[in-house]
Write a structure and sequence with these properties.
3 strands, 4 helices, single chain, 2 domains, alpha+beta
């Protein structure tokens, strides 16, 4: 997701914020800002962040659905046996 060209110091960013903002909007790639050589923050343009947030919400809803289905599920053979017994169907 990140390459070495996506890592910059906070000092570099503070000297040329307009340049960084322009690049972030053009590339749509997040960048890592470092303090004392260690990753400190990640910056990205607003549109990319909104898209990422939507995808995270979507993934979260899928997870909740899968959990709900697994809690309330039962083997198909159990369902068919019960259904056939209830409706007098014999195989």
């Amino acid at each position: 997701m990140f390459s070495s060209t996506d890592i910059h110091t906070v000092t570099e960013f503070s000297r040329k914020p307009a340049e960084y903002i322009k690049r972030l909007k053009e590339t749509k790639n997040p960048e890592i800002l470092t303090v004392n050589g260690k990753a400190s923050v990640i910056i990205q343009d607003a549109a990319s962040y909104e898209e990422m947030a939507k995808l995270a919400d979507y993934a979260d809803s899928i997870l909740h659905i899968r959990q709900a289905l697994s809690e309330d599920s039962r083997p198909f053979s159990e369902f068919t046996d019960e259904f056939e017994a209830k409706h007098g169907i014999k195989r």
